[in-house]
Design brief:
The protein is α/β, with parallel strands linked by helices. The chain contains eight helices and seven strands; from the N terminus they run βαβαβαβαβαβαααβ.
């Protein structure tokens, strides 16, 4: 038996998740499926997304995957409408997808800057735009935007990414005020350094392990499930009067 919470309000709830084929997103897809939610998720990784969909549907869950480049806004909003046609209007949107590819200040061009803003910020707003009408009709809903502690702790070689993630906090708060009277809440979920396959392959070396051990208040490492459990809470009715807030899940990292 699980030692973690089960949320009755998430059963049969239509949920849309971006970047759901791997890493944190995969953990979120699995967590909502286990709660009995009707999960629609998108990712650019077609094979991984199809495999996850097949696995979860075989286990009896209501899960649909659509291969989608979220920077192509019209196609992304169309995918969200397709999920709505099959599952009902989304009552939770998890704006998880992002790309934290490192970049130095002198290699960025206007085009590469715009591309990073598109994948890390712009698409999240237009996904929200696509689900808000259905939430207004339902008089309830939860939009969960993903921030990052990277800008808080001054991680270098990430200026376009950190600009996007810092902006996500402002976007969440403005949207929360704008649509809150319709019963829709908007919050920012802020992960610390999560041990995904991508992070472990690309950036978590001995020096990074030392930094994590010295910076986190808590021993141990953070994994996608740690983030998924916060996403469940923010989507569930248990958080129905919480909005315009930041929820930092980072093991108690020293923010300076």
């Amino acid at each position: 038996m699980s030692e973690f919470a089960s949320y009755p309000s998430l059963k049969d709830m239509p949920v849309v998740i971006s970047g759901g084929a791997s890493g944190i997103g995969e953990g979120i897809v699995r967590a909502f499926a286990a709660q009995g939610s009707k999960v629609g998720f998108v990712d650019i990784a077609d094979e991984a997304g199809q495999e996850l969909e097949a696995e979860l549907r075989e286990a009896g869950h209501t899960v649909r995957f659509t291969r989608c480049d979220i920077t192509e806004i019209a196609a992304y909003q169309s995918a969200i409408r397709d999920f709505e046609a099959k599952h009902g209007a989304a009552l939770a949107l998890v704006n998880n997808a992002a790309n934290d590819q490192r970049h130095s200040w002198d290699e960025l061009t206007p085009e590469s800057w715009d591309a990073r803003i598109a994948v890390n910020l712009k698409q999240a707003f237009f996904a929200a735009q696509a689900v808000i009408p259905g939430m207004i009709t339902a008089k309830k809903g939860s939009i969960i935007n993903f921030g990052s502690i990277s800008w808080m702790i001054m991680v270098p070689n990430l200026s376009a990414y950190t600009a996007s993630k810092a902006a996500m906090h402002g976007m969440s708060r403005s949207l929360a005020k704008e649509i809150g009277q319709h019963g829709i809440r908007v919050n920012t979920l802020v992960p610390g350094w999560i041990m995904t396959e991508r992070q472990l392959t690309k950036w978590v070396d001995a020096a990074a392990e030392k930094l994590i051990a010295e910076s986190q208040a808590m021993a141990g490492r953070l994994y996608p499930d740690d983030i998924a459990r916060m996403a469940l809470f923010l989507a569930a009715d248990d958080s129905k009067m919480i909005s315009a807030q930041d929820f930092v899940v980072d093991g108690g990292w020293a923010h300076g």
